[in-house]
Amino acid sequence: MRRLALVLMLVAAGCTGSDDPDTASPTTVAETTTVPPSTTSTTVRATTTTGPPRTTTTTLVTIGPGDATIGGTVTGPAGPVDGATVRVERLVGRSVASADVTTSAGGLWQLASILGGSYRVRAFKPPELGTSPVESFFLAATERKTIDFRLPAAGGERITAVVDPNPPRVDQPATITITVGTGRVDDQGRPVITPRAGVPLTLSGGPGIVVESPPQAVTDGNGSAAWRIRCSAVGADTVSLTVGTGVTQVRFDSCGPPVAAPTTRRG
After folding, report:
1. Phi and psi (nearest 5°) for 224?
2. CA triplet 88, 93, 97: central angle to 5 degrees?
3. What's the pLDDT at 265?
4. Residues 6 or more apart from 40 whose CB is under 8 A from it?
5. How many CA atoms lie within 13 A of 112 on its CB side?
6. In the chain, how long is the greatest CA-to-CA distance?
7. Which sign does the torsion angle of CA 112, 115, 117, 121 carry?
8. In angstroms, how far is the first alpha carbon of the chain from the final one?
9. Which residues pair with 80 in a beta bridge?
10. Each residue's pLDDT tens digit, 115-133
11. In CA terms, which of 115, 132, 135, 248 is 20 to 30 Å from 169?
């Protein structure tokens, strides 16, 4: 019975809600907006620059190995020179390959197993011996060439003279600067002069040269001393210099004729 009464009550309640519109619960429908997804696709392409490959070729110039040989002797004022340097250079275009050979006892030197080609060779021994003349030649691929060098003495006193103006003119004042030093060669065989400072010098005029300054002077830090001179004859070119107890003749460019006086035109 209780189940029947409960069913009847539920039926009654349902009927009442559907017949009375004023008491019905409102129904709200939510609006749904569907937006399609926005997709932006960016594709980055690699930029490739294609060009011809750059190739740098470096050709190294060498002296050997090869089948040619050069050698010889080096002598000086006193005979064979031990310990001299012989510089051998092989030339290809503007490129140079070099090798130094040291002379042995008796002044002997040799460079074997080298390539043929264009060569230049010289010898020197610093500081007391100067540089030989340069030998330039073409060496065949299997040639055996002999070159003998003679070195001049580089040491000892060196005296140079410079005249201003050059050449000096007759009856015009000029200045002669004399430099005193000791000659030698450097480690590359180049001649250099080491100046001698504080050296007392005495200058005397030669034929056609008059010294107008006091004859005695002392060299400065550059090994130099200067005098005022005057030419009295065309072609004069020698003065006498006393250094210590020695007297030497110093020559310069010959005296020229006097400067002509400008002419004035008369109207």
Report:
1. -115, 150
2. 30
3. 67
4. none
5. 0
6. 174
7. negative
8. 170
9. 75
10. 999 999 999 999 889 899 9
11. 248
